[in-house]
């Protein structure tokens, strides 16, 4: 057993994480459920990789609560929004007390507690009396989630280990401005908090017999990226040989904020550049996720996503991350044996090795996902699996003709045209033929396949269009635009996801490198004051610039020659 | 206004409004913390967003937990927290003192005095008070064997202001012993060498000092002993985990046998290291009933654990980084980074190593060590808030003892110093100052009295009565403090009430500085926000 430890830092990362753990919880439940589709039992993924076994079956996960801004009260205590786990799986939120001092009068004010929503209430009831009949209809639960998800805890049905939640505390300034790299300075410089985070992680790592790697999900759109960078630096220090797979997730809305003045846009550009440079220097493989708009993308053919709801966007990101982690959990076999329900096991270290040490030796990869995956035996559609993969990584180029690219493709739960599950060999064959037919073949491509599709848990948002069937098959004769389908109509969906290390990510890196040069390093740059406020000296900024240039180097072999000479 | 032209969004508070905003903020903060001062102070209950409860009267904790948004209050709170960082105590007193300075100044300013005169007066008074403090302090000679009694008194004074009496007295001994344990002559005391562990178990009075270490994890192998006496301790930072070869190369094998060989060869590296440790064990433990414990900062995988268990060695993996340092100090020996050249000298020794299981959590106790230079305070309590409360108190207690050892001086407590200093300022210093700066000296002197006043108020006594009777005694040349039970003057020396010298000095030093700066503010300009309206 090779365990993977998951770390989530920041607001949107927790949104994604909640969905991710809901999938895992659903998988666990389905494997035990005699009424469920047998594929979940027979092709079960090795859940021990992600879970620790405790007396009460608690989960391995380290996580940070987002500190939430509370409306517009100017000098008031921030409101911490958090959840409390009580014995027996009760998840609830509690009212808080806050106090603010204004012009001498001490005003006590108790903010209105966010009540538990219907979904959490039903979880609590379930925890109290398991046998009793359901008091709330599933339909109502889904409606309530659809309209009222304010926090990532609102739809999480997983029990977390008490050690796994960690809340950042203590800021003298206002948190609604927690949107750039410098804003978390206070947290980062508070040595005891960083130490406490390391302690939490050590607690979980100590339990692992054989840690295969650390998955790190970070919301890099704000101050959390500097917290994460500090944390990653310590991880790199303490666990030298443990590979770190980093997903940088972003809420689509944070990218799309349109009205920005010049100063704000420079700050944003610098933040992107610096958090990218810092985060990438302490991990082994980096996957930026966060498309500017999912609703207008190719995926909107099958999915109905409202960009303004992080609940929706995070669900897609979580599904993609789930698919990427499938190979880590497949059964390990010898090279020649062929299993009926899975093939292509990888561990995090191998994945990192495949993607970042070969070809261009580039550690920034693009994530593409097909949700749902097209049916495979159909010759035409299958030719399309390539085309149907839609990128979740922002700012990358569309052309995909890099002869040095390296890929890892995961297909799980694929269906054929009639809606039957395809066997592993069928998947292999059809993917092979797709690649045969391509003009520019990637230098290396790894395929992992499993029969087990992505289960759709109850609190999953209703984002599927009417043309998706019960098992995620694509219906050709659907009635045009009925209601969006959710977890009541759809049990599971096939997924395909691909990590791609190719020149497609070049614009992504170039932009960051460029903006750091332009706003930060260049003499008399406007941003240099901003950087100084964030606590970076000139030399440090230059170092970061160099680091970014180094990341660009694999794409320009000719640059290599000049740099070798000195 | 010119500023309006520069930035139309900036909001400007001018002269008296600015000053009053500052004064009000200082008074507001003072009001909040006032009730917490002294052994009779009341407690505040903080409830966090997650429903976590914190009961505390520690000023530092309060200021850190409360999210203050008023800019002036933030400045004061930061000064107070800085006070805590440097000397470990006196946060509440700092806030009270600053608040009182501002309050006293307000009176003068309302009567038309320019703040500049007050500030000048503060400056004179501050210097005079510091000089007075030098004379007033009681020297304590530390030498090689510090006077345990005086350390206990000072720890008791600090702890009793944070916890109830019974527990405070128990902690007093723990704290003093802990500091004396880690103290090395002629070296600064590193309080990190006192590990603070907490267990949610039993009652707060079960808190104790462990001469040795408590680790928060146990061994991961069922066959390892749970209890061992007379142990050698090997502290190491060596990976005992199977790792893949980390090179960019391919291994080519043509049959299963070759593959097996390759795997075995990769595995052998780890086994080799484990064997080295086992060899050492066999060497030192042969023919006696001693045991062997390996504590590793890196991982130990199951096959290695198995080898160790079979050799009768207890192995713990992934120890805290800082514990490695503490282990060496507690048990002796040295932390080794490689298993080459292991000798008996590398080993530490502990009389007793045992594992304690609490629900799902395991703890490993390493006790009865020889000549410990590091120790652990094991805090027990029935619930989290009790533990947190004790933890904060222990931290402050440790630092007050440390301060005393380093200052080699203490100051009489219970308000005695403040009353004496006030008398000194009024009787001697005020006359030497010319002009209106006298008002500043007077304001400073009155502000000092805030400490005995608040102590009296918190004990339910009449403030006027107490101050008058204290001042009378001082006028008669007696140095007395306040007995908060009866309200009568007492001799703090007899009662054993002492404060830290460095804490007092820090308060006198930093309070007037920040107060002067706040008084001299004549305009507050803030961009983008409205300061006067709450929303």
From TrEMBL, chain A:
Residues 2-58 form the Misato Segment II tubulin-like domain. Keywords: Mitochondrion. One of its GO terms (biological process) is mitochondrion organization. It is found in: Mitochondrion. The keyword Mitochondrion applies. Its main location: mitochondrion. One of its GO terms (cellular component) is mitochondrion. This is DML1/Misato tubulin domain-containing protein.
From TrEMBL, chain B:
GO terms for cellular component: cytoplasm. Keywords: ATP-binding, Chaperone, Cytoplasm, Nucleotide-binding. Heterooligomeric complex of about 850 to 900 kDa that forms two stacked rings, 12 to 16 nm in diameter. The keyword Cytoplasm applies. InterPro entries: Chap_CCT_zeta, Chaperone_TCP-1, Chaperonin_TCP-1_CS, Cpn60/GroEL/TCP-1, GroEL-like_apical_dom_sf, GROEL-like_equatorial_sf, TCP-1-like_intermed_sf, TCP-1_chaperonin. Belongs to the TCP-1 chaperonin family. Its main location: cytoplasm. It is found in: Cytoplasm. The lineage of its organism: Eukaryota, Viridiplantae, Streptophyta, Embryophyta, Tracheophyta. It comes from the Eukaryota. PROSITE patterns: TCP1_1, TCP1_2. Pfam families: Cpn60_TCP1. GO terms for molecular function: ATP binding; ATP hydrolysis activity; ATP-dependent protein folding chaperone; unfolded protein binding. The keyword Repeat does not apply. NCBIfam families: chap_CCT_zeta (TIGR02347), thermosome_beta (NF041083). It comes from Oryza meridionalis. CDD domains: TCP1_zeta. Gene3D superfamilies: GroEL (3.50.7.10), GroEL-like equatorial domain (1.10.560.10), TCP-1-like chaperonin intermediate domain (3.30.260.10). Molecular chaperone; assists the folding of proteins upon ATP hydrolysis. Known to play a role, in vitro, in the folding of actin and tubulin. This is T-complex protein 1 subunit zeta.
